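Researcher: Hi, I'm a grad student and pretty new to this. My advisor asked me to get structures for two proteins we've been looking at. I'm not sure of the right format, so I'll just paste the first sequence and hope you can take it from there.
Model: That works fine. Here's the first sequence with its structure tokens right after it:
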Amino acid sequence: MPNVLREHGLLTRLRAEDCGTVVPPPYVHSIDSETKVRNARAIHDYSLALAGSIGRLLYRGFFPIVPGGDCSILLGVALALRRRGNFGLLFIDGHTDLLTPDNSETGGAAGMDLALVAGTGPRLLTSIEGLAPFVKPEDVAVLGYRWPDPDSRSIALPAEPMTGLPLGSVQSNGADYVAAKVVKRFESLSFWLHLDVDVLNPAWMSAVDSPDPGGMTPDDLLTIVRSAVQSSRCVGMEITIYDPTLDPDRQGARLIVDLLSKALQE
């Protein structure tokens, strides 16, 4: 993902500096028997490396933009932030990622990342350096999700003190209203933006792991992301899940680069 976005002009369009790559360890398919999470030890170690890299950028006053693979990169990001104090998290995603090792069918950290950074799960991942939770639940806003169904009783739905703004909220109230509401939510707390492109409707972004029906339009997403990143309280962002192997004509890559350039430069 990062290489393809670079090839499609991400650095040039954003007038950004390439600060390198944190290379992940090899993927292991087996589920760790102790934590019930795939690649738990590798994710722990990778999170430490990623946190170090992001921490150095934050220290230098940069606004990091972290294009990654799956949503488990949030752990390294959140650890870097927690080392510096308390930060909020605007979590824009088609899924809530609030599964736990006890109720996940796959054991994949990518479906648990929000739960993990908020302190729910094995200590190997939730309490790196004893800093649990990396982000307090009351400092999290989950926006744009369509899974689980907000009208269901799923245990993976955001619950107080988290703020939940499902896709229906965007569609019924309008992206401008939701953008203003969520930015006001963080008016007294610096925050990080997590963006999983599966929040978009597959009609525009099909190159993702779980292209579920429905989803946000690019225009609505741009409105929300632009409001977030132009807030003086936003310190950086990550963008995840785009899979170039599912995007042979690179339509998805162009959409991502366009969205980020419009949000950050216009």
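Researcher: Oh nice, that was easy. Here's the second one.
Model: And its structure:
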Amino acid sequence: MSYTETLIPGLILLSTKMFYDDRGYFFENYNKKAFEDFGITTDFVQDNISYSKFGSIRGLHFQKNPNAQEKLIRVIRGKIIDVAVDIRKESDSYGTYTALELSSDNNKQLYIPRGFAHGFSVLSEYAIIEYKCDNFYNKDKEMCINPNDMTLGIDWKIPKIDMTLSKKDQSGITFKEYSTNPCF
């Protein structure tokens, strides 16, 4: 397993080594010691699976403290653009985002620390995403920034006509609204 730091401090892209033979393949998806060697000491407590069709956009979600979550994102099947927006008010990269392609072909994972809003768009016919969290979900602490917020200007790589968003995500707050009362 290897890692690459992104342009935003704290966001880490992880690559796993695949072992192929005539039966198929094997890879180590998670290894606590390897992660600790990379400086990630997170104790994950919850695994989630998401199935979404082409054009789906989920996000930009986060949990307010004390339920903020670190996440480890990977794609089991398909291809997505995974987006993490820095919402840490005191950060030098506040208001910027990283958009990375994660797929079952490239087998990369994205580690997202607390203080980021997270979302993804599905580029393949469908995608199955697994993500680990270090804190339990709390409906009363969930927040959403509208993924099509004009201030952020995220390119989801999906034509507008093909975008599918939940009502909750469509009615998410703007980044400017978040900025008036930041959580991190």
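Researcher: Is there anything I should tell my advisor about the second?
Model: You could mention this: The mean pLDDT is 95.
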